[in-house]
Write a structure and sequence with these properties.
two-stranded parallel sheet, kinase, about 45% helix, about 15% strand, two-stranded antiparallel sheet, elongated, ATP binding, transferase, Adenylat/UMP-CMP_kin
Length: about 140
């Protein structure tokens, strides 16, 4: 996400007024498992996930029968380094927005369980477009 550093957050504040920052608090182990389970078919860009969208035959593209590869960014050691760097950079940004009273955190491990809470929160922040459109004369 953006901003990733306090300096970027301060620069963003000078350009626009931020009134809400959403933090998705997902355990690193969950993120690591999802990323390291991702394999791709380089020629087509098809993406497989060994946990929830696996190929029919492990390591083989369903359509072409060609081998799947794991991107360097998705290898366990790389994912761990990326998550550690993200954590080191992001904690100060989260604290920056927390001190301003703008941070809302949502914790969980599954999109379908987190999203309803985020959606309900956003409904309190965003105008209901259907009511706005209904009130606008044509």
């Amino acid at each position: 996400g953006f901003p990733r550093t306090v300096a970027q957050a301060e620069a963003l504040d000078k350009e626009c007024q931020i009134d809400t920052v959403i933090d998705l608090d997902v355990p690193f182990e969950t993120i690591k498992c999802r990323l390291t389970a991702r394999w791709i078919h380089p020629a087509s860009g098809r993406v497989y996930n060994l946990e929830f969208s696996p190929p029919k035959v492990q390591g083989i593209d369903d359509i072409t029968g060609e081998p799947l590869v794991q991107r360097d960014d998705d290898k366990p050691e790389t994912v761990t380094k990326r998550l550690q760097a993200y954590d080191a950079q992001t904690k100060p940004v989260l604290e920056y927005y927390r001190e301003k009273g703008l941070l809302k955190s949502f914790s969980g491990t599954e999109t379908n369980k987190i999203w309803p809470h985020i959606y309900a929160f956003l409904q309190t922040k965003l105008p209901d477009m259907s009511q706005k459109d209904a009130a606008t004369p044509r």
